Amino acid sequence: MKPEFNQVMASFLGLLQRQGLPAQIVWVRPEQAIYGARKGWLILPSHGYDVAEIAARYQAACSSDWGLRFSVLCVHEHTSYCLLKIPADELAAEYALLAADVVKLSVPVPVPAARAASGILQIGWWRLREHLSYRQWKQAAFELA
């Protein structure tokens, strides 16, 4: 049985505090972050999930037999960019070591730095994203990075 969302959030904020990370959280949507191997994360500043959406996604995922992971993706200035990982199926859960009915909290060591994307890059990225399928978009993201 998974704990209540408020308990998990309190534990996650405590973990951020113990690790010396900013307590201000932006919940990242997958299409909002691009990883570049040499330069770290590039964050496209757009509207991520708000806390109510994360709580709804958490509650919906609580009915599954798989685990969940609250994770810090990167840090930029006074903001921690985080995500809630919900496995799509049993194979994805096993691959992410979330096969049991658990909630994991994770912070990478060291925490990668992020940088905000410029306005021109944002416009180009969103235009490219609109015209590609998800598979093509993932491939383009890894080629650009």
Radius of gyration equals: 16 Å
Series of H and E elements:
HEEEHEEHEEHH
Uncertain regions spanning at least 5 consecutive residues: none
Structural shape: globular
> What's the β-strand tally?
7
Percent in helix = 25-40%
Number of discrete domains: 1
Instruction: Count helical runs.
Output: 5
Mean pLDDT: 78
SS-based class: alpha/beta
Estimate the strand proportion. 15-25%
Trace the largest sheet across and list its strands: 1-5-4-6
Separation, N- and C-terminal Cα atoms: 39 Å
Description:
The protein has 145 residues and is an alpha/beta fold. The protein starts with a helix and ends with a helix. Helix content is 38%, strand content 23%. It contains 5 helices and 7 strands. The strands form 2 sheets. Strands 1-5-4-6 form a 4-stranded mixed beta sheet. Strands 2-3-7 form a 3-stranded mixed beta sheet. The chain has one domain (5-117). Strand 2 (33-36) and strand 3 form a beta hairpin. The protein has helices at residues 5-18, 51-61, 90-95, 119-131, 134-144; strands at 25-27, 33-36, 40-43, 68-76, 79-85, 103-106, 114-116.
Keywords:
145 residues; alpha/beta; 4-stranded mixed β-sheet; 3-stranded mixed β-sheet; 38% helix
Question: What topology emerges from the helices and strands here?
Answer:
Blueprint: H1 5-18, E1 25-27, E2 33-36, E3 40-43, H2 51-61, E4 68-76, E5 79-85, H3 90-95, E6 103-106, E7 114-116, H4 119-131, H5 134-144
Summarize the structure.
The protein has 145 residues and is α/β, with parallel strands linked by helices. Helices cover 38% and strands 23% of the residues.
